[in-house]
Design brief:
The protein is an alpha/beta fold. It is built from nine helices and 14 strands. The chain has two domains: about 240 residues, 3-Layer(aba) Sandwich (Aspartate Aminotransferase, domain 2); about 100 residues, Aspartate Aminotransferase, domain 1 (Alpha-Beta Complex). The chain starts with a strand and ends with a helix. The structure holds pyridoxal-5'-phosphate.
Length: about 350
């Protein structure tokens, strides 16, 4: 077996321990003589899995009791529509802070269902900063404020939680479970699974219970958070395999010592990589220092004619998926929870050798 160091932005690396458990479990899960994909989601084994997954994610994130934990399908993108459909009536106002491509997409989607106002927009500097909170042009009557704590493409992360009285709705797809958070500061948190949770196909949504009641009359059943809350996310057949892997990942994170321990490693990984970039005249990262992402680290080479050589040689060295997003160019190393410190150390070594050989 040969595993590479995988810096994919998503779907992203999974812990090897989890993959090995899946391989072991696959043909005969829990003595059923069947795989987890071949049994009813209403079987006692699967219902127990679902309960354990919820209990573990509640423990990992210290989710207060007055919040529901939901596991719908549709990814983060569907939640961009479900937020306005569950929190606004037609014509209501919702505020959007746009610090990257995902926030922009969320605002565009919400605009179909409510009066979605962009109250801060960092596109003027190619999404390399977070506009000062005091400059946000917030509405008096907003039903909620939506923002993207970590913008995956440009690598911009909030290292603070915005203030104010309206419920915060946060797309945490690429930062969830990377560190402890104070869930009580949020109205709604949502995250597609394929970065820090598990395979694509399942979504984590955490909603404060009072907000479940705001749903628009006539909303489609599968677009209604309350329907998931009332059915333990078994509204219809759930993505059982993805849920099973998410359960293994939650257990793996607990075994690592929980999110405090995970955060310590993540911070160290990010700090090392940014230091290597900043200390070189050959690599650079355009993001303002106080809002650099722990999870997605874009960097450009001084000479973009060397990009293809960098990708070719890094691949040959077992470092994959480093090509940057087309809107930013250069490289991007996504260093989610399952990307170990050894991967980051190996990348830094490779970068330094590449610079010596080609700069
Ligand atoms: C990956 C990503 C998405 C898209 O997630 P899907 O599950 O594919 O819909 C949305 N927002 C952010 C911040 C992301 O990183």
């Amino acid at each position: 077996m040969s595993r590479v160091f995988n810096f994919s932005a998503g779907p992203a690396a999974l812990p090897l321990e989890v993959l090995e458990t899946i391989r072991e479990d696959l043909p005969d899960w829990q003595g059923t003589g069947m795989s987890v994909m071949e049994i009813s989601h209403r079987s006692k084994q699967f219902v127990a899995l679902a309960a354990r997954a919820e209990a573990n994610v509640r423990e990992l994130l210290s989710i207060p009791d007055d919040y529901s934990v939901l596991f719908p399908q549709g990814g983060a993108t569907l939640q961009m529509a479900m937020a306005p459909l569950n929190l606004t009536a037609p014509g209501d106002t919702a505020d959007y802070v746009v610090t990257g491509s995902w926030g922009k997409k969320a605002a565009g989607e919400a605009g179909k269902f409510c009066d979605a106002r962009v109250v801060a927009d960092a596109s003027d500097e190619k999404f390399t900063y977070i506009p000062d909170e005091s400059s946000w042009n917030r509405s008096d009557d907003a039903a909620y404020l939506h923002y993207t704590p970590n913008e995956t493409i440009a690598g911009v992360e909030f290292h603070f939680v915005p203030g104010g009285d309206v419920p915060l709705v946060a797309d945490m797809s690429s930062t969830i479970l990377s560190r402890p958070i104070d869930v009580s500061r949020f109205g709604v948190i949502y995250a597609g699974a394929q970065k820090n949770i598990g395979p694509a196909g399942i979504t984590l949504v955490i909603v404060r219970n009072d907000l479940l009641e705001r749903v628009r009359p006539g909303n489609a059943h599968l677009m209604t958070w309350k329907a998931y809350a009332e059915s333990d996310s078994m509204t219809n057949t759930p993505p059982t395999f993805a849920w099973y892997v998410a359960d293994l990942v939650f257990r793996y994170l607990k075994d690592r010592g929980g999110l405090g321990a995970v955060a310590e490693v993540n911070e160290r990984k990010a700090r090392k990589l940014y230091a290597a970039i900043d200390n070189s005249a050959f690599y650079s990262n355009p993001v303002r220092e106080d809002c650099r992402s722990w999870m997605n680290v874009p960097f450009i080479l001084a000479d973009d004619a060397l990009d293809s050589k960098f990708l070719e040689e890094s691949n040959a060295a077992g470092l994959t998926n480093l090509k940057g997003h087309r809107s930013v160019g250069g490289m991007r190393a996504s260093i989610y929870n399952a990307v170990g410190e050894d991967a980051v150390d190996t990348l830094i070594d490779f970068m330094s050798h590449f610079e010596m050989n080609h700069a």
